[in-house]
Amino acid sequence: MFSTHELLQKRNQIDQLRQNISPTGSHASMLKQSIESSWMRSNSAEIPKDRSAAPLFTKINKNQSSLETAIQQCSNELKHIAEQASMVVAVGDISSTILWSAASGQMQRAAERVNFIQGGQWREDLVGTNALALSLKTQNSSCVFSNEHYMESIHDWVCYAAPILDPYSKQILGVIDLSTTWNNHNSLGLLAAERCASIIQTALIEYHQQHLFIRAFSVPQVLFNGKILVLTPRQVEILTILSLCPQGMNLENLHQALYGERKVSIGTLKAEMSQLRDILGGMLGSRPYRLLAHVETDFLQAEQALDAGCIDAALKLCKGVFLAKTESPFLCAWRDFIESRLSEAIFKSNETDILFKHLARFPDAIDAVERLIELTPLHHPAHQMLIKYKDEH
Questions:
Q1: pTM for this predicted structure
Q2: So what's the pLDDT on residue 218?
Q3: What is the topology classification, in CATH, of domain 210-345?
Q4: Angle between helices 233-244 and 298-307 in degrees, nearest 10
Q5: Contact present, 176 and 196 (Cβ < 8 Å)
Q6: Domain of life of the organism in this record (predicted)?
Q7: Tens digits of residue pLDDT in 131-141
Q8: Where are the domains of the chain?
Q9: pLDDT digits (tens, 9 = 90+) for 298-310
């Protein structure tokens, strides 16, 4: 624990730093780079100065995610932690919207005043610097102390957050945040948040029994209960089609989606389906053909990230071309669809750091180059370099 004097001194120093977003000297050493960057993004986001609570999202999602199911399994343990530590515990999805929360009596009223409750939207561009959004942005554990927060209504809070990872894909599914009053700031707060994240990840592993995960970007790969399956390219295509059609497909429609006008017999497809049923241990249904296992894929995760407006997460998932060698008309059409959505998101993005990272991974991403040219000031050295880069490609 820190003394009250130490915490007051820290608040005073932060107040001084907020007056200068580019601190130097000894003050700069105490301000984390992630906080400074977040302040700069928050200042340019045009957040209403009188905003005192997060916008509340009231639409009910009928399709419960694996994360929400896992939370239900460990909710009592998380509630106990909140009550014992006089904290509010909240779990957010990749769009920084709170899916679930629990609080001690002391923090419950404070959480309700600022909408740090189910449905609260804590995106950085809506409420400014906060640990939940910062942890998603940096993909690391984050602590935001007192007046490091952007909104004045939570300057009396200290928040600790840690990302929640999918146990198979290792992609971020969401974030958990533990918050209390600033005078209870504890150096072990981040460890507590990470411990809570691991509790949820353990619940996810239990939930993912009979779990199928498909990677279709870059090198295709299918995992079943965490083990890599040895499959033919055609079998990967079949599983990918069925993952995109969870209601199932009859044999004729599946044949058309897979082969199109190519002259391949129905018997060949039947043989592929029979082999897949043996490999999946009965997790492949028939009449119609459908996957009975819990299915997750990198391409559907990318689509969900785009739906949530999380372009950074979407671009990180799209590590290559979706099934680059497929000739399936159904899968080729879906590839065109996801690439079109990615380009649209790139042209709407205002975050140059994300676009530069994407360009570093994919040098041929001309859509990112064109958007960076639009965002980079004419006098900036990078502007002419980007124009030259575009001309050369």
A1: 0.73
A2: 83
A3: Arc Repressor Mutant, subunit A (1.10.10)
A4: 30
A5: yes
A6: Bacteria
A7: 999 999 999 99
A8: 4-207, 210-345, 349-393
A9: 999 899 888 877 8
